[in-house]
Amino acid sequence: MFHNFYREIKFNNYKMGKLLNRTVSVFLTGLLLIGMVTLIMNVKRLGIGFAETPEHDIVVSNVVPSTPGVNLSAPIPKKTILGRGYSTTIYVAVENQGRNTETDLQIDIYWSNSTHFNQTIYSFVISELAASTFIILNTAWNTGGLMYGNYTISGYAVPVLGEENITNNLFIGSDVKVGVPCDIYWLDGYCNMRDIGYITSHFMTTPTEPQETGWDPNADINNDGVVNMRDIGIAANNFYKSEWD
Question: Tell me: domain 181-245, CATH 1.10.1330.10, correct?
């Protein structure tokens, strides 16, 4: 009899335990649902939305002055010093981060300095750019007729119809110094032996070589994609010329 009573107690305890577990589970599920409903209501009340790909979103993601022959699948080495009267190749990366294919996109490239703002270098027209794709454009910028000094290169995508976020349509690149051809090392306003020595130390280098060990686009004075006797000849012709001549 005592044994049966003990078994009954165990059985009742087992049933109570299952009932308690079920009650706790229902209670926690209820709390979770209440929490989710509260979160959704607060999100709506505060006007917070979840990230969604916009229908139209053209982005200029990079603008880099460099030289011909660069590897477009790797970071493009920047050309930061230009000899006045010579060119640089400007690379512009444009992305379509929207959901729709865009046509007839206008991309403007500008230079600016302390006295002039957004002077057009070139305007591209991209006939078609599919959603979630990008393109790298390039054009030459000749510095003939410009004053010595620092210039900023920028790229701008003219907004397409229906584009709401235009904050990423403009990309402002790094500054470029326009100086005496050959003044690329000491940057003292003169072309001297320090500069010529630096150019000769990069003789016959090209963009295919790592920038850390050989290639410097600044040494390619005439912007033909190789440091050779043409660049050394330009340096020799400008020997000891200054920005104040």
Answer: yes
Q: Which residues pair with 153 in a beta bridge?
A: 111
Quick: pLDDT tens for 7-36: 444 445 545 555 445 554 555 565 556 656
Coil/strand/helix, residue 44: helix
Residue 39 has pLDDT above 80, yes or no: no
Torsion over CA: 31, 33, 34, 40 (sign): positive
Which of 64, 65, 177 minimizes the C-alpha distance to 114? 177
Q: Give, in degrees to the nearest 5, the angle at Cα 91 between 85 and 93.
A: 155
Please tell me what DSSP assigns to residue 55.
Answer: S
What confidence score (pLDDT) does residue 132 get?
A: 96
Q: What share of the chain is helix, strand, coil (3-state, %, to 5)?
A: 25, 30, 45
Burial 118-147 (b: 16+ CB within 10 A, else e): eeebeebebeebeeeeebebbbebebeebe
Measured CA to CA, the distance from residue 233 to residue 86 in angstroms comes to 14
State how far the Cα of 187 lies from the Cα of 201, in Å rounded to an integer. 17
Task: Look up tokens 């003939």; give the residue.
Answer: 144
Complete DSSP assignment for 215-233? --GGG-TT-SSS-SHHHHH
- The CATH number fitting domain 55-179, selected from 2.60.40.1120, 2.60.40.10, 1.20.1290.10, 2.130.10.10: 2.60.40.10
